[in-house]
Amino acid sequence: MDIQWPLLIFSVLLGVTSGCFVFLGVGELKGKFKDVRFLGALIAFVCLAVGGCVSVLHMGHPERATHLLGNLGSGLSKELFIVAIMGIVSLVYLILAKKDYPGVSKVLGVLGALLGLVLPLVAGASYLIAARPAWDSAALPLMYLGGGLAMGMTLMAGLVLLRGKASEEGGFALKLALAAVIIMVVTSVAYVVWIAVAPYQAPSRSIERLLAGDLAVMFWLGVVVVGLVAPTALTALACVKATKGESPVKAGGRLFIIDGGFCKAYQKTTGIAGYTLIYSSHGVRLKSHRPFEGVAKVLSENADMESDSVPVEFFPTRRYIADTDEGERLRRRIEALNALLAAYRTGQLQQQR
Asked: pTM to 2 decimals?
């Protein structure tokens, strides 16, 4: 069978839409990713629209798509309806993403996430045909779901790191991406296992052809290395790096590396706009401040008024002035004044007139 490029492009773009909206839905529930929800929703909507337009090319004549309405029980008809509903939800969410309607946006985001989970399952289920045993398994739509989640969530995690609050939300975004990639690996392996055990085995669809036959190079290099191992390793590495972070506190609190903290050119890299070292009776803290992003954002989100505190040292008991070097100097002066006063009172020193 020749590669059906319209269906392949449609499936990929459909998966991106699915993963993006599941990511955005989780963000709405957690109150995160507000800075990228408009761009993410726009990408999802465009992918859905372009994918839908490309898919009708598979029929040769686009007007034939209307024939699906005559058989509402078919897999393609169900796919058409779920795509249409997803398109409406994504368009409304896209419009509201620029506005401040948190309640409505949250409802639509969660609804979009649920549709995002259903969309690849319905699309994959439309290929379940008894005449093609290698396709006729629940492993196929599950693989569609896994691939879609991985593509969309990885894309959204990249947007958070590039355009969002990377220092605050990047770690969580990468964890979502890593979870999606792991799901993709599991569902892909499950489908390969199904190919190995599917009934009515034939050389053209055998596991031997996939593992050691004419498709082996494509499978091992393209699917395993590029499609599974590389995304898993890269997202895991990025996730670990983001979780560990780069603390400005070095040498057990004796050294603070804050070079460039106030430099605007570094703010996209560091995600902060400077530090304040705070010493109090309770301990020492290093506060990092967010960049100033404009008056409108300050008034709507208090964006520059929030800061993150890094504990450096906590004192077991509160420290007072008497516990400091200045307190020691004051103590010595008090002792000297008391000695002078005692000398006058005992007559050791006489007041001179």
From this structure: 0.70
